[in-house]
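Q&A log
Question type: sequence-to-structure
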Amino acid sequence: MGSFFCRRLLSVFLLVFLLASPAVAQNDVKKTKGVSLDTSHKFVPKQAQAKKKPNEKAQTVKRPSVQELKRKVAEQYNVVAAEVPTELQGKLTCRSAYVMDAKTGKVLYDLSADRPGQPASTIKVLTGLIAIESFTGNEMVRTSAYAANMPASKIYLRKGASYQASDLINAVLLASANDASVALAEKLAGSEQAFARLMTKK
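Response status: OK
Response body:
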């Protein structure tokens, strides 16, 4: 019986507290001075802010230019940008290199630029370009034994089988397929050597 009475009394106290809380909160809000953020991100009372006059125009904030921002960042981090890099930082692992400004044509850096080198699979870009210009896409290209026996990378064309030119072009440009490249070359020029001369002329 005693515990039941205590529980009821506790419930009454909680109910009174909850009902009284909003009023207390409202009184606290009324007593608290309003605050706002100024440009320095410090809390200042609203009363301390200068009241705007009726005829006073809003001040326009001048935005810094991109060049000014770059200059400020460079000053802050002690960065000095040279117009043309005179020396590369780090060690190059390539045998030759050639860097040119695409807009002016000025050579920025070269390393053994005249050294002969194999074009490797970059030649397939030109192979694909010539094939795109020469085929409509629906032509059938027969695979020779020579083309089918090309080393990887390849898509394993079957000797004597015929494929659409558009599929072989996709294989050249997307899968770097040697067998598809030779099949297209033989179809267009008759042989790999004749196609090489065609690429040189192109």
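Response note: The first strand starts at residue 35 and ends at 37.
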